[in-house]
């Protein structure tokens, strides 16, 4: 029986396992930025810090109720409200500093990933267009360019895992892209991530500190060197650039300089994101701001009792909701590379980079004749729809007159 040829099916695109509609992921993230909710924004819980405030607000409600009951039935604990103004100013200043510092780190992380997208596109485009393919090695040179462009995608995925304290190479979206590269992390123990217990999952959603896991525990458990996968990929990328310069397929010095500068910038992005990740707000500031915030909230019922009496309870809860909400937002966005709902969607960014580089490689071996000498090239659109060959027979002076007429014609239409 004749053997039937089968066409190899394309592999699925890199998945984004962190972006799903699973109930567990409703309180985890990062948020899918393509998702649109019709709920009014003040009623949305996905991305809100409200669930993390349930236990603190319950404690504040119990505390305010106890102070009010003692003041009403036993002995008045009310004090002069002048402290309200003084402490309120200090708390506002502290939270402003906390949130501005956290958002600065968040914005800086986003800038680095925008730079990564820009320079991977630029590097892939320069190599794909300007690195020639030798007549006697066309296939090898083409496959080498494809391998180099794929390494740029691998760099972004490896950087994502590094920033999430995932130091190994066995991840679903990374391992197939990294098998052919000799990295230090290949020899390390592939310690599997274990699903958190029910207590930890629920507790972390509700903001319980004792339920939060150490994000660096996988790194600490490894008994062998983990290396630096993104840096090692840059080494291989630099080796490829050196090779095409040496064999004469990448000749123009300006493009050689541009390619080498782009690799240097990718290295700068690697160290810059590491700096954002590993330089949090000094612990002394974090402790002091937390203590000042809680002192203000706990003293609040004493200052409100004389004026509001039993209304002190809801007033204290409402004030605590505002203050703790701002404090928790600052804490959540301080590390923009994690898996909280409000963190940067790194999976989506990596997918965009992969898609953009695939588009560059799909362009083939471009020739100017393919897109310039075409009747679909409407040179004077929207003045007229004449294609290249309709205008080609005219003299340069006639073409310049048509270009001038195009400006005058469009201006006349706009003024009419």
UniProtKB/TrEMBL annotation:
TM ranges: 54-75, 81-100, 283-304, 310-329
Record localization: Cell membrane
InterPro entries for this protein: YneE/VCCN1/2-like (IPR044669)
UniProt keyword Transmembrane helix, yes or no: yes
Main location, first listed in the record: membrane
Ranges for region Disordered: 1-23
GO molecular function: chloride channel activity
Protein topology in the membrane: Multi-pass membrane protein
UniProt cross-references to PANTHER family, sorted A to Z: UPF0187 PROTEIN YNEE, VOLTAGE-DEPENDENT ANION CHANNEL-FORMING PROTEIN YNEE
This protein's name: Uncharacterized protein
């Amino acid at each position: 029986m004749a053997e039937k040829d089968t066409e190899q099916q394309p592999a699925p695109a890199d998945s984004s396992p962190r972006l799903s509609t699973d109930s567990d992921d409703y309180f985890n993230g990062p948020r899918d930025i393509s998702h649109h909710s019709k709920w009014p924004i003040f009623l949305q819980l996905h991305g809100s810090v409200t669930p993390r405030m349930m236990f603190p607000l319950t404690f504040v409600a119990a505390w305010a109720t106890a102070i009010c009951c003692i003041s009403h039935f036993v002995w008045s604990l009310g004090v002069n409200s002048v402290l309200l103004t003084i402490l309120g100013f200090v708390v506002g200043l502290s939270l402003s500093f906390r949130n501005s510092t956290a958002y600065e780190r968040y914005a800086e992380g986003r800038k680095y990933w925008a730079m990564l997208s820009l320079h991977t596109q630029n590097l892939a485009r320069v190599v794909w267009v300007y690195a020639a393919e030798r007549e006697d090695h066309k296939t090898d040179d083409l496959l080498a360019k494809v391998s180099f462009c794929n390494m740029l995608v691998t760099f972004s995925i490896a950087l994502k895992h590094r920033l999430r304290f995932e130091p190994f190479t066995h991840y679903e979206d990374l391992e197939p892209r990294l098998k052919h590269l000799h990295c230090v992390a290949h020899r390390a123990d592939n310690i599997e991530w274990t699903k958190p217990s029910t207590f930890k999952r629920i507790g972390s959603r509700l903001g319980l500190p004792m339920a939060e896991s150490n994000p660096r525990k996988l790194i600490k458990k490894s008994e062998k060197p983990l290396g630096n996968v993104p840096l090692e990929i840059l080494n291989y990328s630099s080796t490829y650039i050196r090779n095409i310069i040496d064999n004469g397929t990448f000749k123009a010095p300006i493009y050689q300089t541009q390619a080498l500068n782009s690799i240097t910038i990718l290295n700068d992005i690697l160290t810059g994101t590491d700096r954002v990740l590993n330089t949090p707000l000094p612990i002394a500031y974090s402790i002091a701001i937390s203590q000042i915030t809680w002192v203000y909230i706990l003293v609040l019922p004493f200052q409100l009792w004389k004026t509001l009496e039993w209304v002190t309870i809801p007033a204290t809860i409402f004030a605590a909701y505002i203050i703790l909400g701002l404090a928790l937002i600052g804490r959540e966005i301080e590390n923009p590379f994690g898996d909280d709902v409000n963190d940067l969607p790194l999976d989506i960014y990596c997918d965009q980079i992969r898609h953009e580089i695939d588009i560059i490689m799909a362009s083939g071996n471009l020739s100017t004749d393919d897109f310039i000498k075409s009747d679909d090239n409407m040179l004077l659109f929207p003045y007229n729809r004449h294609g290249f060959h309709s205008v080609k027979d005219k003299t340069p002076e006639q073409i310049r007159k048509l270009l001038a007429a195009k400006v005058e014609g469009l201006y006349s239409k706009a003024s009419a």
